[in-house]
From TrEMBL:
Residues 1-22 are annotated as: Disordered. It comes from Micromonospora carbonacea. It comes from the Bacteria. Keywords: Membrane, Transmembrane, Transmembrane helix. This is Uncharacterized protein.
Length: 654
């Protein structure tokens, strides 16, 4: 039996709202305006400000008129709010209240009230359908799966052992806490951010960080700084949440493109297959190594692929969503902007006749998006050496056989659907992602080196776009059947429905096996030391954890803080351990920026590292020795240079 799908099919000529709009009575408007400010004030006073973002999401979704199902409406509303949050961060950085929940929620509610009054709309939501549960369930399952090592860790040291797998976690955590302390983007007040956040992060795209800091302030119902353990736990939650949002975006986009070719069993098979690929592929690395900004930026790019290939029925909603997604990508992960520009340019050309119906809206949204989207990129290029960083990082050696398999499967569906506009548009989006990745590969070949770190990022984008196109395989099947009538027909239809569900479950199991979820072998497996496995399997096994550095970090945090102006440095005779522990200790003590000279651009092994530290830091230094061997390293340094004793001290951690 054919069931409703969670997708929206744009009609050839989408209806526009009638010109006449009912006006709101003045008394009612004033009453709602008072509620828009009193409600957040009471919620904050009761410690329930964490509910306000959900209320704003529901109100935004209720005022939209695009999207046929509840999940469609919520996804579109989330896209609008993500872009609006990134843009409004500039306002939060300038006004005197920073990220305080009451003025933020009050202003947002007032804007929504103004939109409702101007359009004459009343909030209303479509009913959910069964297929809505599939992307939501997939996102929750994927998030819990990769959060499991953190959830099973018993204490701070246990969670640190996994968080320290990727040192980027320390820098992103410092940026989130720095934004909470500054009350806005770090680049708007570099001096205030100098102690808390590392200097390179001041001009790094901060869309994820500001969003996480804002939501964290709502959740805590407080703008006060958090303790080390609390700050780490909340950051890890937002990082895993960004990954879950990425899985939600990919599965929803895949269903949206497949459209009427999906019934509920097919939607289950498609969602399960895409989720298995997300967990089994290198996309799981986003949680392992700490890439939350890329998670948000890639999710926004995937949603942009979906709404430009199968546009929203309402032109106004479509224009606003596209503009908001562009801003989100620009503020979250600007590397994807070339592909975003290609997607938007193609959409503007294809839908130019439709867009002419809303010239005023287009004249407002597009220039604003065009100015805001590249703003972080321009600021970073002017202030930092971001272009030079493209050729840095370790070598990238991807599993091209996995990409070949996906290209073959999606390509087979595209051949069948080549006459359908949605799949012709998707083919163009896939070509843009492929050309983008190929351009980086050729760039590194021209340099005469192996492809580097950022080439891997282009492959992440290509992989996500391929997974979005997995719904093209439904074109190889007959259209979903119509329900039959009659007792015998109903009995046969029931047996056929049972068979379709069984096939869907079997396909999900097959895709989980091909992705290597049960044992870590499969299409995406790659070498990890002496073992070949997937990122998720290595993560779950605990082989990537760093219990030794985590224990040293926990012991250092348990000690009384150093005197103001003193830099704390952990010393270990194990290569790179002192650097890593010092990095996380400084971050969790809110001094990542002030400790920067003692962390970066120094030797990673002792005794050269300690000697370089005293040369790089002119002020007081407190060395924390991880063991007896580390203590001797510092004592030998002080014996050779006794003049350092006036500003250098050493303490034993254990």
């Amino acid at each position: 039996m054919q069931s409703q799908s969670a997708t929206v099919v744009a009609p050839a000529g989408p209806p526009e709202p009638p010109p006449g709009r009912p006006a709101w009575p003045t008394r009612r408007l004033v009453g709602w305006l008072v509620a828009a400010w009193v409600g957040p004030l009471l919620a904050y006073a009761a410690g329930l400000a964490g509910l306000l973002p959900l209320v704003l999401l529901g109100l935004t979704a209720g005022l939209l008129r695009g999207g046929r199902t509840l999940l469609d409406r919520l996804v579109l509303a989330g896209a609008l709010l993500a872009g609006a949050t990134c843009a409004a961060g500039l306002l939060f950085s300038a006004w005197p209240w920073g990220l305080h929940p009451v003025p933020v929620a009050g202003t947002a509610s007032t804007v929504l009230l103004g939109i409702a009054a101007a359009t004459g709309r009343r909030p209303g939501l479509p009913r959910p359908v069964a297929a809505d549960a599939l992307p939501v369930g997939a996102a929750l399952l994927a998030a819990v799966a990769l959060a499991w090592p953190y959830l099973r860790a018993g204490d701070l040291a246990g969670r640190l052992a996994y968080a320290m797998t990727g040192e980027d976690n320390s820098r992103h955590l410092a940026t989130v806490e720095g934004i909470r302390a500054v009350g806005g983007y770090l680049f708007t007040d570099p001096q205030a951010a100098a102690r808390i956040a590392p200097e390179p992060m001041v001009w790094y795209p901060q869309g994820f960080h500001l969003t996480a800091a804002l939501l964290d302030t709502f959740l805590r119902s407080s703008t006060a700084p958090a303790g080390p353990a609390d700050a780490l736990d909340h950051y890890l939650g937002w990082s895993v949440g960004a990954w879950g949002l990425l899985v939600l975006a990919v599965t929803w986009a895949a269903q949206r493109l497949a459209g009427p070719w999906l019934d509920l069993p097919r939607a289950l098979a498609l969602t399960g297959a895409v989720t298995a690929a997300c967990l089994g592929s290198e996309l799981a690395r986003f949680v392992v190594y700490g890439y939350p900004g890329e998670s948000l930026g890639l999710a926004a790019t995937v949603l942009l692929v979906a709404v430009t290939c199968r546009p929203v029925a309402r032109t106004g909603t479509q224009v606003a969503v596209v503009g908001a997604l562009c801003v989100t990508v620009g503020f979250a992960y600007l590397m994807f902007l070339p592909v975003v520009a290609a997607l938007v340019a193609a959409w503007l050309v294809r839908d130019r006749r439709r867009l002419r119906r809303r010239p005023r809206l287009l004249a407002v949204v597009m220039p604003v998006a065009a100015v805001l989207t590249p703003l972080p990129a321009v600021a970073g290029l002017l202030r930092t050496d971001q272009v030079d960083n493209v050729a840095t990082g370790g070598g990238v050696f991807p599993r091209y056989d996995a990409f070949l398999a996906l290209v073959g499967l999606v390509g087979a569906g595209l051949v069948v659907g080549r006459r359908l506009p949605v799949w012709r548009r998707y083919a163009g989006a896939l070509a843009a992602a492929g050309v983008f990745a190929a351009g980086f590969l050729l760039y590194f070949r021209a340099l005469g080196t192996d492809p580097r770190y950022y080439y891997g990022k282009t492959l992440h984008l290509l992989l996500a776009v391929l997974l979005v196109g997995a719904g093209a395989l439904a074109l190889l099947l007959p259209p979903p059947g119509r329900p039959a009538s009659g007792r015998r027909a109903v009995g046969g239809a029931g047996r056929r429905a049972g068979a379709r569900w069984a096939v869907a479950v079997a396909l999900v199991a097959a895709c989980a096996g091909a992705a290597g979820l049960p044992r870590g072998t499969g299409l995406f497996a790659q070498p990890f030391g002496h073992r070949v496995t997937t990122w998720a399997a290595a993560w779950w096994s605990g082989s990537l954890a760093r219990p030794g550095p985590a224990a040293s970090t926990a012991r250092a945090l348990a000690r009384p803080p150093a005197a103001p102006g003193t830099v704390t440095v952990v010393v270990s005779d194990r290569r790179r351990e002192g650097y890593l522990v010092t990095l996380f200790v400084a971050t969790l003590q809110g001094a990542a920026g002030a400790s920067g000279p003692a962390v970066y651009r120094l030797p990673l092994a002792e005794p050269a590292r300690s000697a370089a530290v005293v040369a790089a830091v002119p002020g007081p230094i407190r060395f924390l020795a991880a063991d007896a061997a580390a203590t001797r390293i510092v004592e030998d340094l002080l014996a050779a240079r006794p003049e350092l004793r006036a500003r250098v001290s050493v303490e034993r951690l254990s």
